[in-house]
Amino acid sequence: FLLPKLIKNISSTADTASTESKSLEKRQKFPKNISFTHGDILGLDLKASDTCSPPFDVVLCLSVTKWIHFNWLDQGVKDLFKRVWNWLSPGGKLILEPQPWKSYRKKFACLTPQIKENYHKIKLRPTLFKQHLMAMGFELIREIEPTKICKPLKQTASNHTPASSKGFSRPILIFRKPKTFGTPGERKKLKSKMSNGKKLKSRKNGKIRQKEKKSKKFKKEKAKKEIIQKQDIELKASDE
Q: CA–CA separation, 10 vs 2, rounded Å?
């Protein structure tokens, strides 16, 4: 689920690791330095973990949002995105694969009464995740659409095991946390100040150019007048 300089993984069950294994993992090189930390992603204190602590370069969130939605509603998903924002280093990326709304409906018959009640309270649907994340300050840098080359599931006649699997066919969204700090509102104000400053500078430059043009024009006209005056003096002298 989480990727720092090397891959870190978080799943949904609880487990603890000894300090000896943690120190050993630090000394080992990839791929032996991969650590698995189990816990509730909304309540996990990553700062307390030596082998899996923020900031991270990449956060993977694949087929997770639906289950958070079912259990903790819209606020749970918002809290997840907020935690991801805080965990990511500036310029870090969130790779998100949200389950579509039709996937929620397919599971409805299998849900508990409480989750069925939660289902009807959901307002932040998956189609709104992109808008919500960008309002937080994330930049959408890529959207990968699923390919249509996957074949349907087949079974062999002998052992009835699948010969090929279709798998999930969902778009993957890649967001980036900007390298500049501050809230989206603060960054917007900063951008407007910078643009206003550029406008003022261009106006000043424009006024200077106009003055220069006027001065050049004035000098040319003055030179012409002087030439005409000299010519008039020469003509008068020749007539005399």
A: 7
Distance, CA of 221 to CA of 44 (rounded, Å): 80
φ, ψ of residue 46 to 5 degrees: the values are: -75, -20
Task: Among 34-48, 114-128, 178-192, 219-233, name the most confident range.
Answer: 114-128
Strand partners, 10: 37
DSSP-based helix, strand, coil % in the chain, nearest 5: 50, 20, 35
Average pLDDT value over all residues in the chain: 75
Please give the Cα distance from 213 to 221 (Å, whole number).
12
Q: Are 41 and 49 in contact (CB under 8 A)?
A: no
Between the alpha carbon of residue 36 and those of residues 8, 10, 129, 193, 205, the distances in Å are 6, 6, 27, 46, 59
Bigger pLDDT: 238 vs 140: 140
